Amino acid sequence: MAKKKNAFYAQSGGVTAVINASACGVIETARKHGDVIGKVYAGRNGIIGALTEDLIDTSKESDEAIAALRSTPSGAFGSCRYKLKSLEANKREYERLIEVFKAHNIGYFFYNGGGDSADTCFKVSQLSEAMGYPIQAIHVPKTVDNDLPITDCCPGFGSVAKYIAVSTLEASFDVRSMAKTSTKVFVIEVMGRHAGWIAAAGGLVAEQGIPVVILFPEIEFDQTAFLAKVDDNVKKHGYCTVVVSEGCHYPDGKFLAEQGTRDAFGHAQLGGAAPVVANMIKDALGHKFHWAVADYLQRAARHIASKTDVKQAYELGKAAVELAVKGRNSVMPTIVRVSDEPYKYKIGVADLKDVANVEKFMPRDFISKDGFGITEKCRKYLTGLIQGEDYPKYANGLPVYVTLKNVAVPKKLAEFKL
Amino acid sequence: MAKKKNAFYAQSGGVTAVINASACGVIETARKHGDVIGKVYAGRNGIIGALTEDLIDTSKESDEAIAALRSTPSGAFGSCRYKLKSLEANKREYERLIEVFKAHNIGYFFYNGGGDSADTCFKVSQLSEAMGYPIQAIHVPKTVDNDLPITDCCPGFGSVAKYIAVSTLEASFDVRSMAKTSTKVFVIEVMGRHAGWIAAAGGLVAEQGIPVVILFPEIEFDQTAFLAKVDDNVKKHGYCTVVVSEGCHYPDGKFLAEQGTRDAFGHAQLGGAAPVVANMIKDALGHKFHWAVADYLQRAARHIASKTDVKQAYELGKAAVELAVKGRNSVMPTIVRVSDEPYKYKIGVADLKDVANVEKFMPRDFISKDGFGITEKCRKYLTGLIQGEDYPKYANGLPVYVTLKNVAVPKKLAEFKL
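Above: the input entities. Below: the structure tokens describing the complete assembly.
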């Protein structure tokens, strides 16, 4: 029993259409390594589940339920936005983690998240050296923002890219139909924080002859050049599609969405970047517009997930467990691109110290010279990631997504106040 | 030649994911009736194409291209928002229509649209009696708002209902994952104008245990009751989903989206109903929120179209041509529901005079007593309409949607100023 340790798995940060596919990969692979890995305990709501000893016993879930995670969006065990402070600043939390790990014989720590979560995982991976508790911490990458370094892409991104490319294509066909007497400009706002990867996906529709203008966070917003570009498109094509990243900002750093408007009660204005851009066009050029803010719809859209993305999410969960079985600590499995067309990749490994707290932005040569489109290099990069469809099963017109039983592991310790 | 007449077909009003499936039904069926129907001329941008003699010769399109319309969203020939005045008020336009019809030997008029378009089609159908030109005008129903009378449902609605139900389900799973430390309320704004049919589709997720609050245009907005309902859901479930119809309004008729806010230049505020509702919740209950405005994404979402809806759209286009071949005028083929579970329907016929300018709202017994949900009767009504998936083909990660050649018919007449 001493050698066989249980595993802790948790989901962190914003969830995605495929983070549960990684969970599926972790749990199914751990079940195959029953000789060295005991049970997989999932943290209810990420690292908070570990701190509060709120653990879910995944062994209570059937093989069928775990398999169904592969086609279920969101975080099946709950996620959290909670960043551990440094060991020096908050030793109490780390001591508590060790207390919980000891109480439940946990020797493997799998953390499934983005940049902030990689930092948490890295800190936990240092516990062996710093505090003498033997733990192997492996990070499973996940972020729709696609902004983790080293790995070629991040699970979650391929599916949101596919969703945005498909939605932008469909809405562009719509505005093209309406442009003669009605709407001439359609604006869609997309996620991505400080990185323009998701916005870039909207640029894939240009291949089909659609006039699309992209506003990247990486390019300082130039209102005059932007309006001239939209005007030119409407004159040439009769309509124009605009994809605006939530992180798009003026040279002084002010986001487009921050207009400083107030309602009667003094509350800040309510809209996002899309209505701001749409109204800017209306004021300057007089065109009728429509705008959409996809928000959660884009990152939850399992119904149109990229098959490549689902596969990679699963494989990285699987690889994380295999790295643990091989005795590795403080690492993250990665996607290594082998070729663009046809798209081929293999699984690699990165040291967590090189991953934590590094953001990867769009390279300048992925963005066209005028700053409003994507280059051929970017198109090649993106196209591989949206290959294939991986439809969920449907019953009665709706997708069949699983909700787990999430049975709690009996607590052994005193309560811990966060 | 005298007996064999050409047909005019046009798309009108807001386009949908399946209006081209109706076009496909019209054109394929007309091609089968070559003995009585000559060519199908499509109006470029709806009725405007007829007035300006801007006709598209669909006989220049291959059978494959026409078949591909079935899985292509938007309006392949362009649509318009243009309502003919009454015969008394604008005789000039009707005389021009007759002039164009005569010049191109057009004896059949197929108009594909919603309530306003049914009115246009009705007026054209009166030309035989009123102005002595023999024309058979048949309306092909289409509207995502589902607000046409007599027909059990309208093509376009089933697909948008499916999109909204799926998206609401997926986003609800997302917010449920995040609720512990982050977002607790998700608000999605949907279309539908003065009718709550699309909003009702969001209510289908309640079957899966999701706490959802719907704001219908048919129910006057009661802020106190609404906030109490959201508060109750968050206390019980930890999170809450809100579906708000763009037509939702206060008792005095003011829409939720009209907040009277102004920016520095005095422009009206930019947001829709979703950010207004989200901020209202934040101010009263303090919950972190996310909001989405689906806008065109919902009505263009051919990638997740309802198979039932696609089939009905095609069949109604086909039925319109068959009615014309039988000599009918001033009618609209309809969907007649035969049973709920399993969902069965047949094709019927309505007189256009009973359809034009009548809006069908949600019956009160489709809305729950408290006004925030749907009843079992409504669930049964909606469930039939979202049955089945009808995926488009994909190439290189994106759907393959057709863009027709749209070859113009040579003009024979002098220019006409609109």
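Note for the figure: The mean pLDDT of chain B is 94.
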